[in-house]
Every structure is written in C-alpha cells, then in structure tokens.
Amino acid sequence: MGGNYVTCTDREWSQAPTCQGTNLCFHLAIDGVKKSRYMPGESASYQCWQGFQMTGASTVTCQNGNWTELPKCKSRKCGPPPVIENGDLLSFAKNEYLHDESLEYKCPNLYVMKGSQYITCTNGQWTSPPVCLGRLKHMLCGQRLHDCSSFLLL
C-alpha cells in the first residue's frame, strides 16, 4: 500500500501518514474505507480484530496536520503453557491458546501440589502454575521453599 495508508502489520500499526497542506491530514484507511483528506478536528475510529486487545485511544484526530497517537492491538492469545517440574498437564499442549482458556495440572503420587491446579490464559499471559513438592520436603519446609534446597528427597 505504500506510505499513504496506515496498516496493521505484525501486531502494530504502521507509521502515521505524513500530512501536507495547511493543517489537513491525508490518507488514512480504516476498515477498507479510504479517504484522501481529513480536515482539522475530523476523527477516525480504530477497532482491533477478534482475539486482540487495544491499548491507547480508539479514536485518532487530525490536529494541525498530524494524527493523534495511533492505538496498538496486542494479541490476547497465549503460547504453550509453562512446564512444571515433577508435574504434568491433563491435556495435550498446543502452540496457541485463546484468552480465558484454562488448563489443569496434576502431580504424581508422593508429591503434593502447591498453588492452584489450573492456569488461565489472560490477555496473552498465563496465570501462575502450581509447584509439585515431594511429600517429605512439603512436611519439613512448609511455605519456606527456598530454605529447603539441602534436604534429600527419598
């Protein structure tokens, strides 16, 4: 499309087009509608595709020949879930998960789970996964995991 239009590439908007003339703004394409000139004070609204979250104002305005700051659309999807030591997912891991999708972990026999057994994809980030502790370590150390590095698990 060249330098005359704003495009969304790799999850970010391209540079705002340069403005020419006396306080006019030029060439902004939104939702396939292209307008060649915008008068000072005219606005245009952005909307992110499904699965993306907008940061910044959704409306840009032509002011003194320049557009106000363009919003950014950030993916709300998560990548593969975190691997936990001595624990497993109860489902097969995928490469990508939708916002609000949850997964469940389990610990093997002789291990105790600390934290929630579920994690959730929230705005592109996983919530904290649980930890699987050996029963001896759990009984001797309680909440102070960092003090237990020298104990031998049987």
Automatic annotation (TrEMBL):
Protein keywords: Disulfide bond, Signal, Sushi
Gene3D superfamilies for the chain: Complement Module, domain 1
Annotated localization: Virion
This protein's record includes keyword Thylakoid: no
InterPro entries referenced in this protein's UniProt entry, alphabetically: ComplSys_Reg/VirEntry_Med (IPR051503), Sushi/SCR/CCP_sf (IPR035976), Sushi_SCR_CCP_dom (IPR000436)
SMART domains: CCP
Major location (coarse): virion
Listed Pfam families: Sushi
Disulfide partners: 19-62, 78-121
Domain Sushi: 17-75, 76-134
Record's protein name: Sushi domain-containing protein
UniProt source species: Calidris pygmaea (Spoon-billed sandpiper)
Top-level taxonomy: Eukaryota, Metazoa, Chordata, Craniata, Vertebrata
